[in-house]
Write a structure and sequence with these properties.
Number of helices: 20
Number of strands: 0
Structural class: mainly alpha
Order of helices and strands: HHHHHHHHHHHHHHHHHHHH
Strand content: under 5%
Number of domains: 1
Distance between the termini: 18 Å
Largest sheet: none
Oligomer: single chain
Radius of gyration: 23 Å
Shape: globular
């Protein structure tokens, strides 16, 4: 495996300027291949979503759609009773509202837009992969993203998953570009994307705060000059890799002249849009609800759902435990607004946790493992089903995950990008281990499972090929 890390350097990230001669031809060929893969991603998703009935199959989707309709028709974000609300994060309803403003309340149009977002995600994954893998690995990662069964499936769901996946991948890519190029605009762009991702799902906030710290940790290192390109095949490894792109697992940054001040400025450029945009939403909630809620008023409720006595990792948001529904109705009907009721759920959840800490730890561990399960357990009987969904998950995520974990940990000593990916995995896992754990909450991480899994697969195939040839 170690030998294959060095092999993966061939075809590592290209310089920003287009090469001439054979290099230009290779760049053009890579661009064409990526375009065809994106087209495949769009056509595959479109073919699937056009088979669905033009209606919403999930309760969450119905609420998102209702909120979006209110934004378009009345310009206000209110609940079904017409009162100001923050129960549902506003990021995804804003996307729906923009679609509804153009096409009316049209579920098919929403799904087509999500097909386009899915195709764009292929490009984002490819550009991230191009920084941590060679050309073969990055192309494989793009193709796997295009045909990933769960991504195709989510394009047909009026849920925030497809948007979350794209925002996490896009924000991650901008963070890498900001550090590579010492670019404040890229860092600010990462902050804007991170703020939108946070307003889509609050679990994204720790990810981007960790990204801010990671930018500062990179010590302000600037990229060294690219090595002189050579036309000889024997020089390909040195010619095609950047000093900033050493190793298979990610970018290592050479910092001959450390500039902590510059690094901190980049970090602040990323942090500022998050503070401003999320802060603006919190101020809106302060004005509308009397409390500066950061994202949504369902955090306490989700904590209660995930820790009520008798629930398991797979219970989710179903009232399967005796007495659970009655307590939910009692706490949900307390006087006050949704903020005070959410706090009541939070305090009740903390009572359950403090009453049996060992149970809380065991349950959290089981929810963490459930987050990384092979496939989503059915929760809505009339939802669209893929008859081969278990098999499809096993032969996509199930194959890639072991390779991804091995490749990620092999890369850690050489790659600061691998460190950031590991932090991404840990932050999502911890948040959902404490609250609710569903496979769809993990899907923003599957982009990185695909990238590192592709690296592991390519390295393993090369290693086996060398051994077979040696024999």
């Amino acid at each position: 495996m170690k030998e294959d890390i060095d092999i993966s350097r061939a075809d590592a990230p290209r310089p920003p300027s287009l090469p001439s001669g054979r290099g230009r031809s290779g760049h053009h060929r890579e661009f064409v291949v990526l375009g065809l893969i994106c087209l495949l991603a769009f056509i595959t998703r479109l073919a699937y979503v056009l088979t669905l009935q033009p209606r919403i199959f999930w309760y969450d989707g119905e609420q998102y759609s209702r909120l979006a309709t209110g934004l378009v028709q009345h310009g206000v974000y209110v609940n079904a009773q017409g009162h100001p609300s923050a129960l549902w994060p506003p990021g995804y309803p804003l996307l729906l509202a923009s679609v509804y403003a153009l096409f009316g309340v049209n579920i098919v149009a929403v799904r087509v837009v999500q097909c386009l977002i899915g195709a764009a995600t292929v490009v984002l994954v490819h550009r991230i992969a191009r920084r941590v893998l060679d050309g073969t690995g990055s192309t494989l990662a793009a193709l796997a993203t295009a045909l990933y069964p769960l991504f195709i499936y989510c394009a047909g769901a009026v849920l925030s998953v497809t948007l979350q996946v794209a925002l996490i991948a896009g924000g991650f890519l901008l963070v890498l570009v900001a550090v590579e190029r010492r670019s404040a605009p890229a860092a600010a762009g990462a902050g804007v994307v991170g703020a939108w991702a946070t307003l889509v799902a609050g679990s994204a906030l720790p990810v981007f705060l960790l990204s801010v710290l990671w930018i500062a940790w990179c010590d302000g290192g600037t990229a060294e000059r690219l090595e002189e390109r050579s036309s000889t095949i024997g020089q390909r490894d040195a010619d095609d890799r950047r000093v900033m792109g050493q190793g298979a697992g990610g970018t290592t940054f050479s910092t001959p002249r450390r500039n902590r001040t510059r690094s901190v400025r980049l970090a602040l450029a990323c942090l500022l849009p998050i503070v401003v945009i999320v802060g603006a939403w919190a101020l809106r909630n302060e004005h509308a609800l009397g409390h500066p809620v950061l994202v949504s008023t369902n955090g306490g409720y989700n904590l209660w759902l995930g820790n009520y006595p008798g629930v398991t990792a797979s219970t989710g948001n179903r009232f399967e435990v005796p007495g659970m529904e009655e307590e939910a109705m009692r706490l949900g009907s307390l006087p006050g607004n949704e903020v005070t009721r959410d706090r009541a759920f939070f305090h009740r959840a903390m009572e359950y946790i403090s009453a049996d800490v060992p149970r809380f730890l065991r349950l959290s561990l089981s929810k963490l493992l459930n987050l990384w399960a092979l496939y989503q357990e059915p929760m809505t009987e009339d939802r669209p089903r893929l008859n081969f969904e278990k098999l499809a998950s096993i032969f996509s995520y199930g194959i890639l995950l072991p390779f991804a974990l091995v490749w990620l940990f092999v890369s850690l000593p050489k790659s600061r990008v691998a460190v950031l990916v590991l932090l991404l995995f840990l932050s999502y896992s911890i948040v959902h281990a404490v609250t609710l754990s569903k496979v769809r909450f993990r899907l923003p991480l599957d982009c990185f499972v695909i990238i590192y899994g592709s690296g592991g697969v390519v390295a393993s195939v090369r290693a086996l090929s060398r051994r077979w040839l040696a024999r």
